[in-house]
Amino acid sequence: MKATFFYAIICLIVLMLFMLASGCGNSSDPQTLESTEPNNGQEIVIFHKPDVPNRNYAGSESCRECHPEISQRFSSHPMGNSAGMMTEELLIANYNEATFETVDHTVYQAIKTPGKPVIHREQKFVRTVSETGSTDDTQEVYYQHDEVVNYFIGSGSQGRSYLIGKDDRFYQSPMTWYSLMSHWDLSPGYARDNLHFERVITDGCLSCHIGRVETQETLATSYDEDLKFQRRILEPAIGCERCHGPSADHVQWHQKSRPSENSAHKDPILKLSTLNYIQSESLCIQCHLVGKERILRYGRTEFDFRPGDTLEDIWLCFIESSNPSALEQDAVSQVEQMHQSVCFENSSGKLNCISCHDPHGLPSLENRVEFYRTRCQKCHSSETSDCGLSLTERIEINSENSCIDCHMPAFKAKDVPHTAATDHRILKRLHDSKPERSVSKPQLVLFNRAEERVPELSVERGRAILMSIYAQQNLDQYLASVALKQLKKSQVHFPDDPLLMLHVGLTCILLQKYPEAESELKQLSQLEPLNEQAYKQLGLIYHKTNELQMGIDSMNRYMEINPWDRAAYGRKIHMLGQIGKIEEGIRQANIAIEKFPDTWQIHRWLSEAYRLLDQPALASKHEDIYQNTKPHAID
Predict the structure, then answer these.
(1) Separation CA 334–CA 316 (nearest Å)
(2) Is the pLDDT score of 430 beyond 70?
(3) Angle formed by the axes of helices 582-595 and 600-612, to 10°?
(4) CB 372 within 8 A of CB 404
(5) More confident residue, 226 or 230
(6) Architecture of the domain defined by 529-629
């Protein structure tokens, strides 16, 4: 009931935001080009895609020659170890005790063999039950699924997750190493929803956890032409150029004989001291602020941020407006907490991450307390302010007289990514940490009043997409109908926007407006021949409208681009059965269970298919696997 009420309030607020949006936007935006075109006697503002950002990278190793000390320090920073290849010297997990079992008798094991790739193994066991009803000690393996691990994600200070590469895509392993507890367990979220080896690592994930990713697309000139798609990791860990910008021109400038100081040819590297405080903060919050939803600006990709940009140049980041209870319960990011602090407010909004954090290195454990005390005393010097407690009282609370351990304590370790690990509200006293529960309704707003710096039409576009997302998540047809009107309104100004096309298609499907959805998604597939969602959703439409061969063709096209979607296999197999192509369905089903051996639904379909073909032995085999691998709630 509480969750339903909260969702209803969120939907209401999202709708209200449209009524309040008028006059909030800034018409001048350096990231988006505008033109006016006549339309029924009126001038219509048309947005054009921004220029492709600078990609002239040199790589972090090119910095080491001239900046050895900083490079060395950064190599021990968590960001400098945010990801890496599975080489022996970088492995930190315990592979001698690398097996655990879940409540449904699925066993996971990490296997490290000298000279061979690391393997993550998933095995499904079914215990034998005796005639008396007691469980026997013997177990039968119903399937075994092995995957080679290519990369790790995480510095290891808290833990490490692992990436598996398949067909230029990356997926998360269900196994994670938890450093603080020194043991292996399911990856975050897997206890609730085990996606096995199929949790897709999106471009949004890659752009923040990986230093540099190359994406290449060869667009087709016709619908059925062979397509090539490539995504590869060029630099696993976060590197110098993520904050200092692409440096190839800078390196080349230094390698040549330098021009005189009076020359017009200056060092082309971005000088961070020239950034305003919003640009400076954006260097950190491009990754350290996720919010409730981040909507890409028109013409942008997850890899487009460059130092000097602001967050809203690339994304519209929607957060929940000030809510003391949420802030108190570490349910939001450290950035949001910091923005609610008195320290931030008294700095005229100029306090940011590097006011306290050294971006190139962490203080040693021995120097940690003094390091952060020095940061605090930049504003709270002994001459101008006092802690309020005597030294004796402070030492009774914390033997090291630590400012941060008292005013910014760590939260209990938890399995919720992208939320605060330490209390960044910077409270004066711990017993002040429980404000009265807010009775105001939660609102979704743009972070740091971004609507003041973004064109109003771009803000409306983002809010329309936001409504569509909430409508899809909650199967809310009323919200979908409102979203559809706003999406179409935005399409007037962004006529070739693939994200708008996709959401028009999705909302039309939810509203069962299938011809309109089909038209929009076909247009999307022509605009972006590699847009897999266009083909997947077309396949869904044709299945619902009983145009089964067209549905199969669309799923085939989708699976050429993404061959690792078990749901797509299931839908395609079902349609093949519906048109009587049982043998082809069986062939596809066997391919599917080879890829996804835990797919109990396909075993059930195979059991029925073999029964139709009068092959009782095979029907019984797959029925047995289905009965022993289906979730306990399925009867």
Answers:
(1) 18
(2) no
(3) 150
(4) yes
(5) 230
(6) Alpha Horseshoe (1.25)
